[in-house]
What does this fold into?
Amino acid sequence: MDPLDTSTPIGAAAAAAVEALTMERRRPFPRPSRQRIFAVANQKGGVGKTTTTVNLSAALAMHGIRVLVIDLDPQGNASTALGVEHRSGTPSIYEVLLGDRPLDEVIAQSGEAEGLFCAPATIDLAGAEIELVSMVAREGRLRRAIASLSHEVDYVFIDCPPSLGLLTVNALVAAKELLIPIQCEYYALEGLGQLLRNVDLVQAHLNQELRLSTILLTMYDSRTRLADQVVQEVKDHFGDRVLGTTIPRNVRLAEAPSYGQSALTYDPVSRGSLSYLAAARELAERGVETPNGAGGNR
Ligand code: ATP
Ligand code: MG
It folds into this structure.
């Protein structure tokens, strides 16, 4: 029997549910009252920074929001996942940071969604941590580049490398908000103290506007009791800065980048995609409620 045969009560109910879900997916997201700039950071490797950057950005862009992703990791994983060229020699964020090239000149359109753009990272960026050391105003170079951007975008996401070096400092100085993805695993909170101390230093000396606005729990595995403990611990510690949506462990999220895609186009109805869609909506709705937000990091 066709489950959506609406002549039966169950079929009609199912059709109504599908219709409601489809409408919900299509409902545009609210645009922020002013541009939001996020640093997506956690010096721990492999916690989902890039997956979060790429899929939140794609979800927002698919709902009428204009988004720029700045790939600040020499690995170039965000550029790969957004299907943007990043071979050595491609105009990239390296030339912006080290060569004073305008950000507008290196931005490429992602095929993932109409309003989605990416400033790619090439392997050249690997030398930037050291090359930046001797530069004038070395911590504020990305901030200056974003300030003179003429591309009109509602959101900027800066995908940081897994370190607290000058690239991440540049992201923290350029951003208004910090988004920390936390993997639902043992020791999840370990090392965060160091990141938060850096955030305090940046706030005190370089960027008063910066605030830790968003925590996203990633790679949640419902089969382990440990994951629930981590979720609870993070919520106790960070309160309502933790998004209500938790991202499950889902193989589609890991597969999508090898096709140069976000999970949202690779498999739009996978649990991974739907959870990033829900997280993106939450993020967008929060941005409208509290455009300036509350201060404080802990
Ligand atoms: P790095 O510190 O190296 O930049 P990262 O913090 O950006 O890493 P990702 O690259 O997003 O982390 O994720 C690490 C690995 O885990 C990748 O292979 C990614 O595809 C996979 N992954 C991320 N999130 C999930 C998830 N929710 N479920 C399954 N796999 C995931
Ligand atoms: Mg990454």
User: Anything to note?
Assistant: Confidence is low (pLDDT under 50) at residues 290-298. Residues 49-50, 73, 77, 159 surround magnesium ion (ligand 2) (CB under 6 Å). The beta strands are 36-40, 67-71, 108-109, 116-119, 155-159, 177-183, 211-218.
